[in-house]
Design a protein that fits this description.
With about 140 residues, the chain is of the alpha+beta class. It contains two helices and eight strands. The chain is globular. The protein starts with a strand and ends with a helix.
Length: about 140
Amino acid sequence: MAESAEPVELIRLDDGVQSVSVRVLSHEQDNYDAEIVIESDFVNATVRTGFDADDIRAWGSLLDAVEEDDHDGDDDSVFAGDWPQEGRTAYLTFVADDPYVVEVRDAPSTQICVRVPLDLKGDWITGARERHAAVRQVLGV
């Protein structure tokens, strides 16, 4: 497995008080070893996860879906999406509510779920897209 000199941050959702991030630690071909990191005044935690190149592209699709749901406005339903796909490893459930919520789920291992509300500002999705594009370029995805 090829180790990175420093972790590459694929996802960083941060409201200045608490955050959830995903850092790629190493990769071999299209498989990535990573960690999900929660930082807040209440809980600080890290859980290992893994994903592949398709999951990196899927993060971009999830951002598209959140943005489309934001502009839809006709429906009172709340968009929620998992990343990476539920069931294989620890994953995030992103809930586009007010405030946004990220649930970090350590399934199928411990079954622990930590729910982190985030007061993301209006331009957060632009920053998330820029980070996504930069990481895709660095990783060659």
